[in-house]
Amino acid sequence: MRIGNNVLVAGARVAGAACAEVLLDRGAAVVVYDRADSERMQALAARGARCVVADAFDPALLDGVEQVVLSPGFPPHHPIAEAAREHGIEAFSEPELAWRLREPGAARWLAVTGTNGKTTTTTMLAAMLETAGLRTAALGNIGVPLVHAANGPFDVIAVELSSYQLHWSSELAPTAGAVLNLAPDHLDWHGDFDAYAEAKAAVWRGGRAVVNLDDPAVVALAKHTDAHVTGFTLNQPEPGQFGVALGYLVDYTGDGPVQICSVDDVRPAGWHNVANALAAAALARQVGVGHNDIGDALRKYVPEPHRNVTLVEHEGVTWVDDSKATNPHAAAAALASYDSIVWVAGGQLKGVDVDGLVAQYAPRMRGAVLIGQDRALIADALARHAPDLPVAVLDGGDDAVMTEVAARAAAMAEPGDTVLLSPAGASYDMFRSYAHRGDAFAAAVRGLIGGDEG
To answer: Cα(233)–Cα(212) distance, rounded to whole angstroms?
Structure first.
């Protein structure tokens, strides 16, 4: 059974509401459950859905239900997921539903997953496909819901997929899929690192795997796949690989190495983004995009906000917004990009240990300003590994604290330093999103230095 006639949709935010709309359009009987009422719930009720608002899920809602569509935030141990398993009811999320809705001739999918770099790689890939003249879009965790685009006017789509979405999939099988990197993240959701990694491996279900050869965890995961593997590395590539040679991104999957573009053409700066560009190039080549188009796309690529983006240089100090770094692995990539840093960090660590990150990058730090729910954990790690480092630990539960963050960071910074917002934690303890956090930081920096230099 690909799509049932009686379906429960759990969660009525953007993805859940889109799923309910599509299912209603197909004539399915739809029950929508959410803990809060909303305009979306009311609109779905007006279209014929049975909408249920309750703090606790009632298993009786599963009576007569053939399938459950879960918003990605519902973990496997959620009562809805557990009840579905007990009743033998199939559960999946929006990308899986979109995949099942595809009609003959629908667009091919090129998928991107990993702990960090997904959005940058996906948008780089979409730029490459567009430069080659293909009808495309960057979708998944970005853009319009996949269920609305599954049969849209596209040749190939670039799809960003999270571990949550991949966990709740079974048939989804992209033409090719890339795993960019693997580091502990979302362990409270998956239970342990092995389950997290296993979810990521589902992106290779279609039979072609793009693999980061510099990441031991990704290499270990790839040993268990039957997919055809194309590797990428920041080192000189061997035959069959993408890599870097003499300052150029290189494709060595053909008879000889072919230069794509200069390392200096890749934006945002940083070796982690060169790796992202190589992954995107390897995926683009899977559907025949030429090297010239790939290189042109990278030279013209405009980076997404909040990803290691320079806000301003003022009196010798560079201010950088990397608010998208919502885990230590992402923060490490940014910290590795600068020599002398005033680090702005903190938020929700999600059960991930920050000690190794601090031990490795404390020698690069001039000082640190810490905010958010788990600021004390980061402060303790800094005290162990850099006891003489100036550290400001700030209270405050909203974006107003960023004004003090900017002032404290400016007091620590010297000409040649970089003040780097790279929090290593999620933002929801204080902000609506990582974007809200980054915008608050940028506004505070502009307020500090005056004018609109940022």
So the answer is: 6
* Residue 281 CA: distances (Å) to CA of 143, 176, 232, 241, 253: 21, 12, 10, 11, 12
Please report which helix (H) or strand (E) contains residue 160, including its range: strand 156-160
CATH number at residue 83: 3.40.50.720
How many Å is the maximal CA-CA distance in the chain? 67
Inter-CA distances, 97 with 101, 256, 395, Å: 6, 41, 43
> 10 Å Cβ neighbour count for 272?
24
Amino acid of residue 233: T
With contact defined as beta carbons under 8 Å apart, do 190 and 222 qualify? no
Strands laid side by side in the 418-421 sheet: 309-314, 317-321, 418-421, 341-345, 365-370, 391-393
C-alpha to C-alpha distance for 63 and 405, rounded to whole angstroms: 53
Regarding whether 351 and 250 lie in a shared domain, the answer is: no
128 exposure class (CB count in 10 Å sphere: 0-12, 13-18, 19+): buried
Same-domain check for residues 111 and 85: no
* pLDDT tens string 316-369: 999 999 999 999 988 998 998 899 999 999 999 988 899 999 999 999 999 999
Spatial strand order of the sheet with 6-10 comes to 50-53, 29-34, 6-10, 67-70, 90-92
Residue 1 inside a domain? The answer is no
Q: Which of 165, 164, 161 is nearest to 178 (CA)?
A: 161
Which tokens belong to 205? 């279900």
Residue-wise pLDDT tens digits, 76-118? 889 999 999 999 999 999 999 999 999 999 999 999 999 889 9
Residue 212 Cα distances to 106, 127, 337, angstroms: 29, 21, 20
Six token digits for residue 408: 């404290």
Q: How far apart are CA 123 and CA 161, in angstroms?
A: 13
Find the CATH number of the domain harbouring 435.
3.90.190.20
Tell whether 88 and 114 lie within a shared domain: no
77 and 105: one domain? no
Contact call for residues 147 and 101 (beta carbons, < 8 A): yes
